[in-house]
Amino acid sequence: MFRPGLIRAYARGLFLVGFVWVGVYFYSRSDSPTFAQAPQTITVRPRSVGPNPTIDSPTNANDGSDATSAGKLVSLICKVSCAPSNQTATATWNNVLNGYRPIRLEIHWKAVPTISLFGTATASVKAKLEYDIGQGLQIYEQYEWTQNQLVPNCPNPSNQSIQCGDHVTSISLLPEQSTGAIQVRLTLTDDLLTCNNCIVNTGDPSQARGQIWVYDIRVIAETPTLTIDHSTPTRGDSAVFQVLGAPGSTISGWQYVTMSPNAVGTIGRTSNTNSATWSGKIVASGTGKVSVMLLGQPYNLEKVVTVSPRNWAFPAVDAHQRSQGYVEPCNTIVTNSPILGLGGAGLYDACIRWDLTLADVETISDDGPNHGLKWITGIRDLTTADWVIHPDATDANGDWWKHQCGDFVPGPTSTCAAPTGQGFIKPQDYADGVVRHELGHHSQYVAAQDNPLNNIKTGAENQVGAATQDKVVFFNSVNNLLILRRDAIYAGYHTDGTPNAPCHQQCDATCTIFNGPVNTKPNGGNWIKDPCAP
Question: What is the pTM of this model?
């Protein structure tokens, strides 16, 4: 009695009955193929075969050619071996060079049973693929045949099943996977379980045979890449460039091409030039470059680094009221008496200064990507902001105070911008207006110095000098830039006589109502009105 065929297939927990395409990834090919690789990948293979392989010519599976194969035929016949009998062929491939960044593991193999059973005879042929990525061998794909299989079951056209020569098992891997830990084991087992009789030569002809071919075992890996542990380091941080996925390669030509805050040249590595890492302090944005020769293929690798600025900005200083004639580091603050009518009875000045010395300039001395570049490591703010109001404008018992009649009557259309009316301002209103005006200048200083385009410390933060630039020359260039920023801050609050001036001293706090003119003694003569009362 001849029984129809049955196949059981197992792949990662999938158990199927029938002639099936199991749950693994396959790639189409014809004849004895080589498989097209995705762009930007490399192929590496196990370098060793484990001890005591019983699959013949096992090194043919890692020789880089799909045209050769490791393989084994196992066969059991009742009238020769009787039952129960067993034959097993197995081999393990390992020792992939560690350090690659794998994408997937591919095993190109096939297994074909030939089973012919009569009467009550039973047998099985099994094929199994196991792999290990450092956690012990685990079954990925497994097949078992227990019924008659007289003809290899690969359809035409092929469906890439296990009995076809284009069957490829693909196992996805993480780039961080240690390639040195990868192992693959393939096993073919032939079991003759029961026979009708065991008469030698003339007895039961039932038989079970299995054959396995292992064409290629390969790891598809990423091409080498250049990485950095901080792609956006803060200026002055240490960073490490590293070539990944290039074990056994030849490395040369390390360079760092600066880009910003200003291009200050290219730094070439002068020691340990074949190292896979390059570390050091980073102060300038740029591009790290290195050449890698791997498996006979050159790779020119690049990695852009964008340096983040330090949180560097001088805060605005507070304004302090001083006495007439106060001597600040920049000026002696003297203002006019309101009696003379020469304009203003107050004065504001921000004395913008900083402390920057050669000791604050560092030349990077490590052999890293920014070797020789110069940068600013510290700067100190010496700015002061001071203002005065003439004592005549605040002396309630003084002559000027008594001559401010406080009898101003505005005209029907009077505004701060176009005043009309009769009489004079109240002395307290004028004194308050002077204070508001000078503190208005201080607000303008604050706005100007808080602008990152003007701030002194912000300007010093991103200054980087070339390795070829003299330290003193760099220092002077930084100071010259800061002087331009200082002048911009000055211009931001020196606004009297322009449309941007703070509210006039003779206007109210809303800067819309004119409080009246000031009674003065022009040219030191007589009061415009004296006395206030008729």
Answer: 0.78
